[in-house]
Amino acid sequence: MSSYREIAWQGLWRNNPGLVQLLGLCPLLAVTTTLTNALGLGLATAIVLVFSNILISLVRNYVPKEIRIAVFVMIIAALVTSVQLLVNAYAYGLYLSLGIFLPLIVTNCIIIGRAEAFASRNNPVKAAFDGLMMGTGFTLVLCILGSARELLGQGTLFSGADQLLGPWASSLTIHVIHFDTSFLLAMLPPGAFLGMGLLIALKNVIDAKWPAQQPQAQPTDSHCRVSPTREI
Amino acid sequence: MAFKVATSPHVTHNNQTSKVMLTVLLCAIPGFLAQCYFFGWGTLIQVLLAMITAILCEAFVVKLRKRDIKATLSDNSALLTGLLLGVSIPPLAPWWVIIIGTAFAIIMVKQLYGGLGNNIFNPAMAAYVLLLIAFPVQMTSWVVPNAIAQHPADLLASLQTVFSFGHPDVDWYRLGIDGSSMATPLDTLKIDLSMGLTTSESLTKAVFSSGVGVGWVWVNLGYLIGGLIMLKLRTIRWHIPVGVIAGLGIAATAGYLISPDTHASPIFHLFSGATMLAAFFIATDPVTAATSNRGRILFGVIIGVLVYLIRNFGGYPDAFAFAVLLANLCAPLIDYYIKPRAYGHR
């Protein structure tokens, strides 16, 4: 069985949902125009991921194999609806700026992927930890991309943070640089693709440079596979 | 008497990449000079900046990739990319525009795909599109031709404007004889048509003379001459330029015949903007074009027709960058479906 350390390593770095599994690219590219948006969507996804992993892990022994996907999707959809309503109630500005991508968390492949690959074959505690680590990994990638694009595009960090955290947070906005002309490309979708490609390249460079620091033991358990092979 | 026996191949030619690129560079000189004459020192400054940036970026990436820097740089392809981008962007654009563009062209579009011969897209045109999307204001304010400008920018003023030191008044140099600022002929016509003027009404403006843009005719003729020299030297083949000009010409003629009041004449299209530069120097890039002769004609026609469509119905000043990139995308498909028949096959 896998240790918690291994789960954390897989979620945060080695099998990072954003950089390695390339799951959930649609929100990743669409909403990372500012750090606030990125953090908001990342947190929402992480919360859904943790609770969906717990619930699915709890019911894993009672759901027939044949209809498991349908059950998983229903659980995830219910969770996403709850999160959407919560954001609508407590962070309305963020709700508006995230738009359709909040309900679209339902279709985010990370969540169903972790449900199928990990939660449906591990106990609830481990599943929750896996959801937390995968969600954190995804949120980190979103935040890095979001801050890079916001910095290049408008020279600020955390602009509109009050939408996410309440009125007090408007002082969090940092004006790093002032551009006479904004670098529009960073705010547009091509900038997201370019930034994403550069991030993946950076991860590969780091992996190639410091292979010794990584745990060498390859996991034998199938939980960490991107596409699990399962006999049907 | 000694017979010297050589093994095959018996037909050799002297077409090294560096020589081909150098020929293309030299053949661009007539058009480049015309552009400098009509639009001032800015063009020269931009081209020099672009070439220096291109060389530095190429050397940097090649060093990162642990390849032979000298061998890569001596193929002159970076210089050509620099030249093409330098003459494409507005002469008085700020210095960082051309540097960002050239760095993107060399690092992202060319070297990340594996260097010369492996890039899918034309580096100069991809960089042009990047700049157009990222800095629309800087990329669409072209200078007024010196012949009709109220205050032609001299060398010092051009340097001041590009590098933004001293107190250059950029708008000052964008004023024509009537004291009004100006867009390119293509832009002017497009704006006038959208405001309800007819083509002939729009063509009476100062930026036009005898139905085409002031200066632009000579720039295009200069590139046409250079292109014809390249054809004569067999540096390029005729298929792509003929395809581009035929595609654009036929589409423009059709539009002009149907509705002369809302469509510019074919002559206007052929001698405005980047037509000749693109037809002979940009579209003929052997790396990103189709490879068979019939395929090349089709490739050229696609560019020509797309240019006409985008110029007429699109929102951007000139269409060649987009048309070339879209045709680059089609090139593998063209090569797949149009294969030259192997000798002996039916």
Can you give keywords for this protein?
heterodimer, A: 232 residues, mainly alpha, two-stranded antiparallel sheet, 10 helices, 61% helix, globular, disordered C terminus, B: 346 residues
Helix content of chain B: 55-70%
Identify the strand order in the major beta sheet of chain B.
Answer: 1-2
Percentage of residues in helical conformation of chain A: 55-70%
Strand content of chain A: under 5%
Radius of gyration of chain B: 21 Å
Task: Please state the structural category of chain A.
Answer: mainly alpha
The sequence of SSEs of chain B as H and E is: HHHHHHHHHHHHEEHHHHHH
Q: What sort of overall outline of chain A do the alpha carbons produce when their principal axes are compared?
A: globular
- Beta-strand share of residues of chain B: under 5%
Shape of chain B: globular
Cα-to-Cα separation, first versus last residue of chain B: 46 Å
- Report on the biggest sheet of chain B: 2 strands, antiparallel
Report the oligomer.
Answer: heterodimer
Task: Indicate the mean pLDDT of chain A.
Answer: 82
